[in-house]
Amino acid sequence: MSVDPGLCATCAHAQRIASAKGSVFWRCREHDRDPQWPKYPPLPVRRCARFTPTAADG
Q1: Which residues pair with 27 in a beta bridge?
Q2: Residue 6 Cα to chain centre, angstroms
Q3: In sequence order, what are the beta bridge partners of 44?
Q4: Helix (H/G/I), strand (E/B), else coil: 32
Q5: Could you give the CA distance from residue 58 to residue 44 in angstroms, rounded to a whole number?
Q6: Which terminus of the chain has a smaller tally of CB atoms within 10 A, N or C?
Q7: What local confidence, expressed as pLDDT, does residue 3 receive?
C-alpha cells in the first residue's frame, strides 16, 4: 500500500526513496541545510513553509 505524500510529491526539496523490500520513504533535503527541519516528515504533508514546486509544476 502506498501513502499519499501530499505536497512532497511535487516539491523540489523532496527525495523519494524506495527500499529493496519495496517500502517508499520521502526525505526532505531541507534537513541538509537546516538540521532542525524534519528529515522524514509525517505524511501526508498538507502545509509546508518551505514547499517549493518543482520546475515542471511552475
Answers
A1: 15
A2: 8
A3: none
A4: helix
A5: 21
A6: N
A7: 80
* CA gap 41, 50 in Å, rounded: 12
Q: How many CB atoms lie within 10 A of CB 36?
A: 6
Task: Report how far apart, in Å, the C-alpha atoms of 45 and of each of 8, 20, 21, 26 are.
Answer: 7, 24, 24, 10
Distance CA 42, CA 31 (A): 14
C-alpha cell at 46: 498538507
Question: At residue 54, what is the residue type?
Answer: T
pLDDT for res 58? 54
Say how far apart CA 56 and CA 1 lie, in whole Å: 27
Tell me the C-alpha to C-alpha distance, in Å, between residue 30 and each of 19, 36, 46, 47, 49.
21, 9, 17, 15, 11
